[in-house]
Amino acid sequence: MRVVDLKIEDIAFGGKGVGRERGKAVFVPYTIDGEIVSAEIVREKKQFAEAELVEVKERSSDRVEPQCPYFGRCGGCAYQHISYEHQLAIKWRQVRDALQRIGKLKDVPMRPIIPSPKQYAYRNRITVHAQDGMIGFFRRDSHQLIDIEHCPISTDEVNRALIELRAQPYVRDGHYTLRASASSRVFSQTNDDVADALRDLVVNLVPPNQELLIDAYCGAGFFAKALLDKFERVIGIDWDEFAIAAARENATDKETYIAGDVETELTRSDGFLAVEGEARRLGSRRSLTLIVDPPATGLSQNVRKAIIDLAPTTLIYVSCNPPTLARDLRELQDKFIIESVTPLDMFPQTAEIEVVAHLRAMLPAS
Within a 13 Å sphere around the CA of 62, how many CA atoms are in the beta-carbon half? Predict the structure, then answer.
């Protein structure tokens, strides 16, 4: 394989630096925009190439010493070599660029990124893998395990659970989720501080004295329960029966939680959501707010169509994947005005980004 000298021009979504050799993009992990590096080409395609870093010839002023001894081998973190302020700038720019490039949005109303108060020791759970007596994480771009004794981005409680697991005389091969608390099997955000900021952001985006909230992919009611005092009625939908059971435990009379597939519930012609949609088209319902917090795959085509048919007054889209968010907003922008886009750094030191898009329905032409 050959070694090339490159100037890193940008950081791509996913965390790899981008340089160019004779016009072809070359992706190099663990680099920073503005650096001059030498890199070994390890895979070459027609449109791009992938390389491994050999040497940093001109360092960025934002290059810092990683705090994890496994960094560069473990596949979990991509940015420990970058100052936190620059990590935030990279992620903000990546969200804007995805919305412009994939979503074809020209003037994106970007808000500043919300940082994490803790850059390390923030993860309240991790999933480790055990195989042949080894316990740890997969290597980058591989299914080979690295034996991990301590994870610096995880809380002390999680690391204690890791120590306890490793101390067992025999650990069966498989996957083990280690949590900061022995809470239920219900999904929750990984970074408690930023989860609180996310919930507060969504609450502040919703005006008071609203009628109906539909919280799709509601989990145990993380957003719905924080918004109860702003709505007459709340409907939550999630496929996870454990989460719905947790949401129902302390539900008030105004709350209804449905264990089911979001696409099915939003599109079925005999469901009460269809009745709500018809009532709104007839003008009998003044305000509908819809929150969607889908998995990384984003919204299906049928869900996007259902949203357009429901025509909520306010639409809040919580995304963990800017490219699929951009794809979905490209279709929704014909019927909605994008009021704001706010990135949040739920996962410092990693390439992951959380985003909240706030939209409102366009008024019909008179």
Answer: 17
pLDDT string in tens for the chain (366-residue length): 799 999 999 999 999 999 999 889 999 999 999 999 999 999 999 899 999 999 999 999 999 999 999 999 998 999 999 999 999 999 999 999 999 999 999 889 999 999 999 999 999 999 999 999 899 999 887 888 999 999 999 999 999 999 999 999 999 999 999 998 765 555 578 999 999 999 999 999 999 999 999 999 999 999 999 999 999 999 999 999 999 999 999 999 999 999 999 999 998 766 555 545 545 554 545 689 999 999 999 999 999 999 999 999 999 999 999 999 999 999 999 999 999 999 999 999 999 999 999 999 987 654
Q: What angle do CA 259, 187, 159 make, to 5 degrees?
A: 160
The three-state DSSP-derived secondary structure of the chain is CCEEEEECCEECCCCCEEEEECCEEEEECCCCCCCEEEEEEEEECCCEEEEEEEEEEECCCCECCCCCCCECCECCCCCCCECHHHHHHHHHHHHHHHHHHCCCCCCCCECCCECCCCCCCCECEEEEEEECCEEEEEECCCCCEEECCCCCCECHHHHHHHHHHHHCCCCCCEEEEEECCCCCCCCCCCEHHHHHHHHHHHHHHCCCCEEEEEEECCCCCCCCHHHHHHEEEEEEEECCHHHHHHHHHCCCCCEEEEECCHHHHHHCCCCHHHHHHHHHHCCCCCCEEEEECCCCCCCCHHHHHHHHHHCCCEEEEEECCHHHHHHHHHHHCCCEEEEEEEEECCCCCCCCCEEEEEEEECCCCC
- Active-site residue among 74, 151, 218, 320? 320
Active site residue 320: yes
Nearest CA among 354, 364, 362 for reference residue 314: 362
CA angle 224, 125, 93 (to 5 degrees): 70
Distance between alpha carbon 291 and the CA centroid of its chain, in Å? 15
Exposed / middle / buried, residue 247 (Cβ in 10 Å: 0-12, 13-18, 19+): buried
